[in-house]
Structures are given as C-alpha cells and as structure tokens.
Design goal:
Length: 368
Amino acid sequence: MDSKLIKIFHGPQHPGITGNMSVELDLLGETIKYARTHVGYLHRGFEKLVERRTVIQAFTIVCRICVPEPDPNEENFARAVEGLAGIEISERAKYIRVMVQEMSRLAAQMLWMGGQSGSIGMGTVGQWSLFDRDLMLDLFEELTGGRVYHMYTYPGGVRRDLPEGFLLRLSELLDYLEKKLPKYDSIFFDNATFKKRAIGTGVVPKEEALKNGYVGQTLRGCGIRRDLRKDNPYLVYDKLDFDIPVFDGGDVYSRALVRRGEMRESIKILRQVIAQMPAEGAIMQKLPKHRKFTLPKEDIYVATESARGEFGYYMAGDGTEHIRRMQVKGPSLIHGFTLLEKMLIDEELSNVAMIMNSLGICPPEIER
C-alpha cells in the first residue's frame, strides 16, 4: 500500500453503517482510493439452515434474513411452498398479505429515512421517523404478536385473522402519516443541506444499472420504471391502482425521492385494501397435514417487490417434508459489492454513510 494512504474501517461501530457490516477504506487525505465490503458475522447461513429443517421449522428462520424488512421473506417462503405443494389461498388471505407487505414497506422506508438523515447529522428527522415507524410496529404487534419478527404469513394463508377494529386503526394511522409526509418534505427532502450533499453524489448510470441487474430505488432512481407488482403481479396487486415513482438523476437524491414517492403509493394501496378486502373467506386453507407439508421433486422461483427492490427465492423439494435446496436472491449482494465498492472510489469520506444508506443493504442477505 502507498505510504501516503491511510487505512480505516468504516463500521460496524459507526452510526451511519448498515447493520453489522463495515467497509475497509484506503484514504488519500479525505478521498477514498480503495473500498472493500466486509459483511460481518451476525446472521448467516440461512439457506443451509432451511435445508436441514422441515417446512414448518424453516418458516421461523427466514424472516431474519433482513431484520428491517422481514415480511417479504415470509411472503416468498410461503408462496414457494404453496407453488410446490399446489396450495391456492383465499382472496381474503391475499388481501391481508398485501396489507402486511405495504405496512412493512412503510415501516422500512421510515427506518431508511432515519438512517439516511442521520448519516449527514440531521438527528431530528430520525427521531420523527423512528417514532412514526413505532406506530406501525404497534399495529404489527397487535396483528402478529411481534413488533419486528412477525412469522405471520404462513403457507396456506396467514396465521390469524384481523383483530376487531384493526382496519379502522390502520386507516387512522394512514391519515396521520399522510398529514406528516409534507413535514418530512419540509425538514428533509426539500432541505437545502441534504439537496446540496445528495444531488450529484453516488451517481449510477442507467446503462450500468441495466447491465449489472440493480433493482429497487437504485434502478428507478435512474429513470427505469420496473416493479414486480406491476411487471409480474402477485397476490391481488393487479386489482389495485398505484403508480411507480421514477426519477432520472441516478444519484442519492433521486433514490430518496423514489422512496418518498413509494411511501405515498403504499398509503394509496393500503386504503384500497381496506376498502376492497372481502369480509368473509378463509384466512388459512384446510390442509391434510397442516404441520407436515410434502414437497414434490420439483423446483420453483418466486419473487416479491420489497422496499429495496426485487427479492426472490428459489426452492426445490425432494418428495418429503424437507426442502432440498433454497437460494435467496436479494438486492444486497449486487448493491453492497458490485455497486458500493466501485461507487466509493474518489468519493469523500463524509459521503460513505449517505451513499451506503441510499442503496438499501441488509448484511445477512449477503451472508445467507
């Protein structure tokens, strides 16, 4: 290494880092000349853990693959098992699952906002957004019994029906959030400091995004309108009216505006779910052996549009209640290695946390 370069590890103790990972940096003054991602050793090996358990045992593991956003993991796992086992869930269960996915998306965006604002020292925004996220977690606790890990979306439907008055309380929270979003615009998204720091920083060219398979806000922030909920609808997304926000700057600010737009669209989706959800219908299909699924010697790939982009599961059965092979395809690997390490070269040290938070990286998703 050049004697003029200084090596530091940005994380995992740094408050702007994503989860338990760190980035090894070589600095020339304040300028980054080398970057290498280290994902840490917190949650790992999920694919092999699942393959050594029965379906019902594996069901409790997958939500931990991404702690800030566990529900897309449950949705993928449930739909993969249902696809292999030939299970069709009720219309009411589908609406409930969409509700859970969009509640999860809102909670994840609130957590992102706290991290993104905190990465440039805007502590007030983080306090607001984490408080508002907690209001959503209150509803998750009421619905599932858990605030973070829910283990609610289960092969065959969902574990329990909605508590009495739940949709009314959700609607009241949506009213509150809708009134709060303009305040977030004022204090954060339209803030001159954030715009000066974020515009033109961490730019991803459109051609590179397509070539390397980037997803989510990274892709839509380059002006590419791609979202599985529209492109390959699942559950009842084809019955709902919503837009896909896109911005063409390709930078940290464009990715932030995409997330801001998606919060608005999630509220719109949830209002339609509340209005259209069937009052009757089985929340769980009657299965011959409810706790012993038999998966044929076939394979399947399912994908969900998480708050961070396309999130997919490949699953193969072996003719028993065990899963022969499972692989997870998430945004974190390509964003945390292919993109982040390249993007940080010649950036300033002060921009590392802001760029990293804009990409939506879950370290356990890499160490899966």
